[in-house]
Amino acid sequence: MPLAVFFFCSKTIAQPPASVIVEVDSLNKVAFQVKKSDVWGALEKLYKAQNKALLTGYTKGLAISYMYEAGIYQQRGFSKRAQADYYKALDLFRTLDDTVNVAKINQQLGKIFSDEGLFDSALLIYNACLFTYKKYNSKEDIINIKNSIGILLLKQKKTDKAAIIFKEALNESRSIKYKYGEKKALQNLGLAALEKNDFIKAQYFFRESLVLDTLLQDKYGIANNLNSLAYVYAEQNKIDSAYYLYNQAYKNAASIDAYDILLRIIERIVSLSKKIGNKDRVTAWQDSSIAALKKQREIENEYASSFIDIIKKQQSKRIERENAISRAERVSREQFYIITVGTFIMIILAVLVVLVFINFQRQKFLGIELRKKNKLIEDHAAELRTLNTEISEQNKLLESDNRTKDKLLSIISHDLRNPLVNTKGILNLVNQGIIPDDQSKQLLMQLETQYMGTTSLLDNLLFWLRGQMQGKNLEKVKVNISQIVKSLEEEHRMLLRRKGIKFFNHIVSGTELFADKEMIRIVLRNLISNAVKFTTEGGSIEIKAEKSASETLIIVQDSGIGMDEQTIEKIKAKNYYTTAGTSMEKGSGFGLMLCSDLINRHNGKLEIFSEPSKGSRFSIHIPTK
Asked: What is the reported pTM?
């Protein structure tokens, strides 16, 4: 019962409830939608999402929350803080193999590098992101990254290359009716034309982008395009048109407090007024510039002060949250150790009780038989030779039983006791805190590996003992072979991943076999365990099944170290034989003997084909009837 509880708890942590996933995703979505209008509310929702995701192990929700939080910091000028959260999200998405979101975060990091003047680093990141988006056919992301690459090329004065990239983005945007990508590409083409003093093309592109900004009600984009158009008219000496467009751009920028555009507009109006000698207008707009700068500074100071308070508050909550999680993890580890040790003790006691009971029953049975034989000897002297022969055979059976008992006791005292002693040593080291956390994790992984091996050995022992008891018959049912192999693959998932072994289940879903389900499971489990044990890192294991009118054939094949003829003969002779695996895994030598016995009980046979350094193939033949 304690072991069952432990597995249930582990599954809950790995797979958070659906209600938690919905709640965290909803908080992240609302925060993303309101971040432009209510940054404080957005941050509060993101912190709630992070707390919930951390406590329930919802990794993807936590990564998305960090990514959105970083975006808020980046837009408000806190690029270093944004980078820290981007890297947190990046690590989490990599553990999930979420390639597209990894690329999106790298794209934002590339923009930070570009703003800092690290053009070569930014371009490398952009090209890597473009490759990923093309691989997954993420069309809107492809268009956005191309616009970003083009802007980077413009900063490097590579105008012709930038124009080519912008045209590609424009054509692709129109083909999928992506208005945002289209208007950005048109605006960028206008900037490229300005770099070459081609005012006619620049005017065309800015006007086309302005139309789309008006449809999208993007006042920031409208102000930007009007400012660019006014500059084009000023360069063509169309002074009145330029002033008119500058005024329109100023109104749109002022309506959304876009001070970066306001200051650029004022700077250009002052420059134009000086150029034509209009001192009154120069003075008036310089006053406007001073007022705008003053207002911007006041807002930024107030904003920065509030923002820093929010960050401090968030840091305090995060520290409290991490401390709470640390305490919960410590309690969970202590409970796990208690449950594990208790489970091992219960299993050992159960095995000892079963062994004593079986031995008592056998001794009782043999005593009765011996008394019968002695009475027959006294009554029938003529049958003395025959009776002596029978007694001799009984003695041989008893000696064989004693050897089996000795072997079982040896397995229990060595292969079970040693892992328990090792487990105690590891638990003492971890509990006393005398080793670093990274080594502690490695030791716990070693403990988990020992646990799986010991559990497998106990299953084999108990099943063999059950089979030796009188009255244990085959319970044949329809067995889904593919499902059994899938469950065994999951059982060995950790060892497969640790050794980098590829596992191929070629059995067609629904393939059935008429046999004792538990016996077939024990056979396949031992053969797969041996394949993992003797396959080198980076190797492969394949499971196949073929059906004919007379029999079902199951094949377990690996690319491991193989066996020579002497080793195969020892196995076929049903001798206890064991050797260390490719990663020094230990075994009891009991598994293949049990496999052969269970297959024979189905009137089947086990064939072994192997060559040193070329792997092994175990073929199981089970008759259809």
From this structure: 0.43
